[in-house]
Amino acid sequence: MTSAAGTVFEADYLNTLGVASLNVMNMGKWAVSNVGLFSEGANQTYLESTSAPVVGTNTPELFQTSRLSTGSLRYYGLGLENGLYNVTLHFAENIFSDRSTQTWDSLGRRVFDIYIQGHRREKDFDISKEAGGVNIAIQKDFSINVTQNYLEIHLFWGGKGTCCIPNDGDHGPLISALSVVSDFEPTVSGIPPETSISDKGKTGIIVGVVVAAIVVCLMPIFVIFYFRKKSCADKEELLELRAKTNTFSYAELRSATNDFNPANKLGEGGFGPVYKGMLSDGRVVAVKQLSVASHQGKSQFVTEISTISAVQHRNLVKLCGCCIDRKKRLLVYEYLENKSLDQALFGATHLHLDWGTRFSILLGTARGLAYLHEESRPRFVHRDVKASNILLDAELCPKISDFGLAKLYEDKKTHITTRVAGTIGYLAPEYAMRGHLTEKADVFGFGVVALEILSGRPNADDSLDGEQRYLLEWSWNLYENKRTLELVDPTVTAFDESEAFRIIGVAFLCTQASPILRPSMSRVVAMLTGDVEVNAVASKPSYLTDWNFKDITSSFMDDNDSESKLAKEDDINKDCTSTPFATTDPNPSPINVTEPMLLSTYMY
User: Fold this and answer.
1) Residue 273's beta-bridge partner residues?
2) Domains in the chain, start-ordered, CATH in brackets?
3) Mean pLDDT highest for which of 80-89, 99-108, 443-452?
4) Cα separation, 569 vs 566, whole angstroms
5) Tell me, what's the pLDDT at 300?
6) CA-CA distance, 485 to 482, in Å (whole number)?
7) What is the dihedral of CA 436, 442, 448, 451, to 10 degrees?
8) Which residues carry out catalysis?
9) Tens of pLDDT along 399-410?
10) Tell me: the pLDDT tens digits for 488-498?
11) Rounded CA gap, 392 and 336, in Å?
12) Which ranges in 329-438 belong to alpha helices (H)?
């Protein structure tokens, strides 16, 4: 059809659009896309026809049929020469009655937005309101610069206006016609020329040569396009994350840490190194490079990050954001001035932790773990509770760090076992031996940390001799010999004895061999605050008593004198009176082999 102004219109030949469809017109110059389903199956053709006369136009037949969508309607102009174009959209409301009639049909309101090239050009567009009534033609003109050889016109219903007047499904964008005219003299028609029969052979040779040349020339472009598309996929996966947490570019974090300068390195844990950095807005942050390969894909990683970002507690380190750049994955945390608890306790720092501060740090750590285990959604098992994962802010308030990494990098597991990951000295026995991970593994680690805070020394110190080398063993020896308070750090000049006994009792309960004997972290908090009594500890854990033996193997390996070996064997046999080797009975009773206490304790 040709309008009075000489514009040639091509018919939208599709009688029916799909619920989610994209179709190209016969001439290959236009495509139409629809998304949305009308309620109760109304208007399955996505067309609206009227026999009422449309005024305000020299070409009323353009408005006899209109394209309708329940939600999103897009038209694409294809193969356009780049340059300026005049885009004209033609509308006429032909479903509702005139508002002056005061009828049910007149109450309908059609409200939608108009986007061109991805930019919103009209917000809350109402056809009848703009035209001054129904069955009145109106056009909207836009000047558009086409830069990538295509044009996108998007009509989008955002849930405004009415939806069921006069019938169900009478809503959404509606358009009668559209035209695009270049503001310049085109150098190409954009329509494939007809080829005569006599030129078929010649055309075939030319096309073959051109296609071969194009393939060779465009290969580098395809490579660039592939990596660009991959990068875009990464960005798209982060779009849903932006509403929940901040995302940083790798270049931004690289600049913030001065190209991850070793001088800015704060430390390194099992999941990667941590660097101090300053963002462009002046914020000081800690940037952790994750070096352990995760079994998760990017989308799962993004979901986990958004989950961890939502966990907020005064005793948990705040996650400021993340960066995913291909295989590079980084987490950005708040920076805490006084670094980690192990440096404050065992390192050469200027900090002096008095008794009140130590008790406050221990109580805050317990509250943070109680939140992770019992209050947060989802719940977390930290898996590596230790002094170096407890950070101190400017007021020496403790904040547990890396609480989300165990979840991010959790291995494929059954309902009872998982790969053991943690730090020797803080591992619960059932986790170290069987991979049985529950929140009680964190309780065990907390018990060790409690003894470290109390004594001011690490859980193992090779510079010490004998029974003092291992903190747990030494603590129990002092307790059994009624010298418990000797465990308190000698640099602490004044302390509360009742609080000290409470901490020791809690630590002993938390480090019991059987998980079922260890308290929950919420009960630990109640015991530390004095709200409930600390339960009495019956006996030393089996993993300490079972390991209390005299190591004699080295003397056998080092002594080459056979007579000396025999003499030593005789001495050993005299000591081992409970074994058949120590008796002259010609018919000794068989050895009674029982299950080690260390294993039987874990059966629950």
Assistant:
1) 268
2) 20-182 (2.60.120), 246-334 (3.30.200.20), 341-545 (1.10.510.10), 553-583+590-600 (no CATH)
3) 443-452
4) 5
5) 65
6) 8
7) -150
8) 384
9) 998 887 766 765
10) 999 998 999 99
11) 6
12) 341-346, 355-370, 405-408, 429-434
